[in-house]
TrEMBL record:
Coiled coil: none
Name of the featured protein: Cytochrome C
Gene3D superfamilies associated with the record: Cytochrome c-like domain
Domain Cytochrome c: 60-140
Cleaved signal peptide residues: 1-27
Organism name: Salinisphaera orenii MK-B5
Alphabetical UniProt keywords: Electron transport, Heme, Iron, Metal-binding, Signal, Transport
GO-annotated molecular function: electron transfer activity; heme binding; metal ion binding
InterPro entries named among the record's database cross-references: c550_proteobact, Cyt_c-like_dom, Cyt_c-like_dom_sf, Cytochrome_c550/c551-like
Length: 159
């Protein structure tokens, strides 16, 4: 093999190694939290975090939450909240877990010095977090073979 061919082979191997090392990072897509437009939802106090979902059964909140979930949560928790095993299946969280949910979303999850879930406080506002929770409430009903219409009736009875 002459010198030119060796040089070309070395460059090709180096470029392939670089592509293999960097390619997966590019393929993962935008992993930073995405902003969520919550226009139309009842505003919540920025300085007083609720411990119960004020948007449970609110159709607009569920729609906003579905989009926000797809942008911020689905890559780990699965499309349509169906976990692929990487992170917990959020359809299993019933309404009694509102406080648990909001705490984890606000603070994230860290163990042994590793971040398993980023903190979303300061990135998503309270309205966006509760809209995601409203969407997950609907998925919880569907997962448990309950009619989500009961959620809408509860919301209409409150409002």
């Amino acid at each position: 093999m002459n010198r030119t061919n060796r040089r070309a082979l070395t460059v090709a191997i180096g470029a392939s190694a670089l592509w293999l090392a960097v390619g997966p990072a590019w393929a993962h897509g935008d992993v930073g939290p995405q902003a969520v437009a919550t226009d139309g939802l009842e505003p919540l106090a920025a300085d007083a975090w609720l411990d119960e979902n004020p948007y449970r059964g609110n159709r607009q909140a569920i729609e906003i939450g579905a989009s926000a979930y797809g942008q911020n949560c689905a890559r780990c928790h699965g499309l349509d909240a169906v976990s692929g095993g990487i992170a917990p299946d959020l359809r299993e969280l019933g309404p009694e877990y509102d406080d648990y949910f909001i705490g984890k979303v606000r603070s994230g999850v860290q163990r042994n010095g590793m971040t398993y879930m980023p903190a979303f406080e300061g990135v998503l506002d309270q309205e966006a977090m509760w809209a995601i929770r409203a969407y997950l409430d609907k998925r919880h009903y569907e997962y448990n073979d309950k009619d989500p219409a009961a959620l809408y009736e509860q919301a209409e009875g409150r409002g």
